Amino acid sequence: MIKVVLADDHEVVRIGIGQFLQNYPDIHLIASVGSGREAVAACAEHQPDVVLMDLVMPDLDGVEATRQILQLGLGARVIVLTSFSDRERILDAIDAGATGYMLKDSEPEELLRGIRAAARGESPLSPRAAQAIVNARQTARVPSDLTPRETEVLVLLASGMANKEIGRALGISEKTVKAHLTNVFQRIGVSDRTQAALWAQRRGLLSSR
User: How far is it, in rounded angstroms, from Cα 61 to Cα 172?
Assistant: First the structure.
């Protein structure tokens, strides 16, 4: 059972997502709140597996709420619920510890996959939201000393593949994939999969496939 807390200041959004999640017995919406402060309190009380976090909310925005939730040390995985207009805040949320981001107008099944992926420890990233960030920031590619194989592993990670899937695609073991990712993280100066995926997306590595 995946325990979920939903934080969004729009009641219509909360009702819609709540009704949708009721259809899936492996997901339990344990709290639906309308502010960042309430989200932090709900996480402290209910210890969810996944938090769906709006970015713009009263009294405490989604970025700070995400930071405070992760400081609780309960292992909750935060997925930012965003729109194109929020793209400037997405990177702040990722820096605060959010594990991924989904667009509010995503197909319901895409949101469902994102929740399940986050519960498995993966980083759900909406391709359209990622492209919006790339277009907004227009960050130039920065040369790195990644090897060709490390670059392949990074691109597949940024495409949403798990380590086992990357290994199958490249014909290498999952252990070898993990070793490559350790090197990649060190060389590009990031600490987790989400930041590595953003690094790749912001430098146009996906569009060059």
Answer: 43
